[in-house]
Design goal:
Elements (H helix, E strand, L loop, with lengths): L5 H14 L12 E6 L8 H6 L4 E8 L3 E2 L3 H11 L2 E7 L7 H10 L14 E3 L14 H19 L4 E4 L1 H8 L11 E4 L18 E5 L7 E5 L3 H9 L1
Parallel strand pairs: 1-2, 2-4, 4-5, 5-6, 6-7, 7-8
Antiparallel strand pairs: 1-9, 2-3, 8-9
Helix pairs in contact: 1-7, 4-5
Length: 238
């Protein structure tokens, strides 16, 4: 397995350290509300979300190499107008084409990054197959290689490592709990619970974003950034 560059490891830990200041066991950490959406959310109250305290949104852009989310542009424009930090995500289909091919498709259709301070690095949504074998018919080694091809291609084109969205169960089952990405790619961990994000997989010391609910009052799923606003802004700027 190709190891990811040491300098990139330093970079992501600097971002996360900035987002997660030291605290005592009883101190409540700062967090920032956000949400994620796709074409399934036809009506999103971006301004209402912002006024309630949300400061970021992650928007579905692509899936595989044949699907472009028809609501992406509308959602992206609405989020921008409301003052939200925003970014795109790609739903992976590892059985259909290579990680590099899908990263390039994502980049060509909304998944890019710019250093404007308002754009998050793209997110790779890698999770349960909605229409077949849980791990898309790939072995654990093949899955890790697929993810490596995606994130390395994204990084080579943008200078940023993409975020990786998954669950503890899927990551353990389909990658063998690989720790190949914990020093470079911020983790977006899905666990619908009021009791916290639970077990953190893959060697990540903590999640950068926790998807804590599949219902957010202003549209889509609820996401919680693990740090204060300055840390969120640092994630956007790199």
């Amino acid at each position: 397995m190709k190891l990811l560059p040491t300098l990139a490891a330093v970079s992501i830990y600097q971002v996360l350290a900035f987002a997660l200041p030291a605290s005592s066991p009883i101190e409540k950490r700062a967090t920032v509300q956000g949400f994620d959406i796709s074409h399934y959310q036809a009506n999103v109250n971006y301004r209402g979300a912002y006024n309630s305290g949300a400061r970021f949104v992650i928007i579905k852009a692509t899936e595989g190499t044949t699907y472009i989310d028809p609501a992406f542009s509308t959602h992206y424009t609405g989020a921008t107008s409301a003052g939200l930090i925003r970014g795109g995500y790609h739903f992976a289909r590892p059985a259909s084409s290579s990680g590099a091919t899908q990263a390039n498709f994502f980049l060509a259709h909304g998944g890019g990054w710019s250093g404007d301070g308002r754009t998050l690095p793209g997110m790779l949504d890698i999770e349960y197959n909605p229409s077949g074998a849980t791990c898309y018919g790939l072995s654990q080694t093949a899955m890790v290689n697929w993810i490596s091809a995606f994130v390395n291609t994204y990084h080579s084109k943008t200078t940023r490592w993409p975020m990786i969205y998954s669950t503890n169960d899927w990551w353990t089952t389909c990658t063998g709990n690989s720790a190949a990405f914990h020093t470079t790619c911020p983790l977006v961990l899905a666990r619908y619970s009021t009791a916290g994000p639970g077990t953190i997989p893959g060697g990540w010391p903590y999640q950068t974003i926790w998807q804590n609910s599949d219902s957010y009052a202003y549209g889509g799923d609820s996401d919680i950034f693990n740090g204060g606003l300055a840390g969120l802004q640092k994630l956007a700027t790199g």
